[in-house]
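Support request from a user on the community tier.

User writes: "When I paste my structure tokens into the form, the page sometimes reloads and wipes my input. The last time it worked, I copied everything first. Here is what I submitted, just in case something in the input itself triggers the reload:"
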């Protein structure tokens, strides 16, 4: 009996220390106001991608906003997403780490410095490289570097438009979808799509959407939805089988001249996602970051 009592506590100690090696040092993490516990452990592998629209919508002179400039809202949205990514990682066991976060543009900016900064925002976190220093580095980088991107883009004052449609057609599957991951694409846009080299029209379906097009199609009256359904207005499907991609669209900023503009934009995007078999998506207007923070984090951290 004495021998059994000695072995049992020893077994418990060995098991405890073995499990302790499977997570980031809890004392250090507690000092960062985060706690890793078995109850909160997430087993999902996140693959988060940003697609930034650096068209003239971010120009504070052309589209000023007294409460908060639109480019500043973008920066805050990016920060909210990165904080959710950080929370996910700090509540995950080390051996389960295989998570990614990255940022894209289409077309790529002509400014080489912007492209260099975007490369600094690409992280692949896995069990062999994870440590507290890396987590803090990701958090700091996503707080500071997006500001540099927008400052450079505004300073260059060379807005080449947004070829979001072409990105979906040629790059979305290669860049934003990984097997065995929860793939999330965060699109920062005012809801309009236009690029001079991608102006495709098939009947009433287009690869672009502008305020001028909405007026041309006469989608500026109370029967806008009936007109869209009857005359089949919308985006041309750019690809298909995006069932494994979740999409969060942030920053919708409709032309104020049309009371139905936002409804039309949301309808265009919703129908487009459905045509490409996107199962989960959310489309939000350019709200103040303090109001959007919870919405963003709830989407990213959904189980």
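"...and here is what came back when it finally went through:"
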């Amino acid at each position: 009996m004495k021998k059994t009592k000695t072995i049992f506590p020893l077994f418990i100690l060995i098991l405890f220390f073995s499990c302790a090696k499977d997570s980031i040092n809890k004392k250090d993490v507690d000092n960062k106001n985060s706690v890793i516990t078995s109850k909160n452990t997430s087993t999902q592998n996140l693959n988060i991608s940003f697609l930034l629209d650096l068209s003239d919508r971010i120009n504070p002179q052309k589209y000023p906003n007294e409460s908060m400039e639109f480019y500043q809202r973008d920066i805050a949205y990016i920060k909210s997403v990165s904080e959710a990514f950080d929370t996910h990682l700090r509540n995950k066991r080390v051996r389960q780490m295989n998570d990614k976060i990255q940022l894209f543009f289409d077309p790529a900016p002509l400014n080489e410095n912007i492209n260099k900064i975007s490369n600094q925002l690409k992280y692949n976190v896995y069990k062999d490289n994870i440590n507290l220093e890396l987590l803090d580095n990701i958090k700091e980088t996503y707080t500071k570097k997006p500001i540099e991107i927008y400052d450079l883009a505004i300073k260059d004052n060379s807005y080449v438009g947004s070829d979001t449609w072409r990105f979906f057609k040629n790059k979305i599957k290669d860049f934003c979808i990984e097997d065995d991951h929860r793939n999330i694409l965060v699109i920062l846009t005012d809801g309009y799509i236009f690029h001079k080299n991608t102006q495709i029209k098939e009947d009433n379906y287009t690869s672009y959407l502008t305020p001028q097009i909405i007026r041309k199609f006469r989608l500026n009256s109370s029967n806008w939805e009936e007109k869209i359904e009857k005359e089949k207005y919308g985006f041309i499907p750019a690809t298909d089988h995006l069932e494994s991609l979740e999409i969060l669209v942030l920053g919708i900023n409709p032309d104020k001249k049309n009371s139905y503009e936002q409804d039309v934009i949301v309808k265009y995007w919703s129908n487009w996602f459905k045509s490409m078999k996107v199962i989960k998506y959310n489309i939000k207007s350019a709200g103040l970051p303090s109001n959007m923070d919870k919405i963003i984090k709830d989407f990213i951290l959904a189980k």
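Agent notes: The reload is a front-end session timeout and is unrelated to the input. The domain at 25-300 is CATH 3.40.50 (Rossmann fold). The radius of gyration is 23 Å. Escalated to web team.
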